[in-house]
Amino acid sequence: MAPKIIIINPNSNEAVTDGIDSAMDTFRMSGGPEIRCLTLQEGPSGVQTQQDVESVILPLVNLAKSLENEASAFIIACFSDPGLYAVREAVSRPVLGIAECGVLTALTMGQTFGVIAILKEAIPRHLRIWGAMGVSERFAGELAVGLTVDELSDRERTLSRMIEVGRRLRDERDASTIVMGCAGMVAFREPLQEALHIPVIEPTQAAGAMALGRARLSW
Question: What domains can you pick out in the chain, each with its CATH number?
Answer without folding.
Answer: 4-97+205-217 (3.40.50.12500), 100-203 (3.40.50.12500)
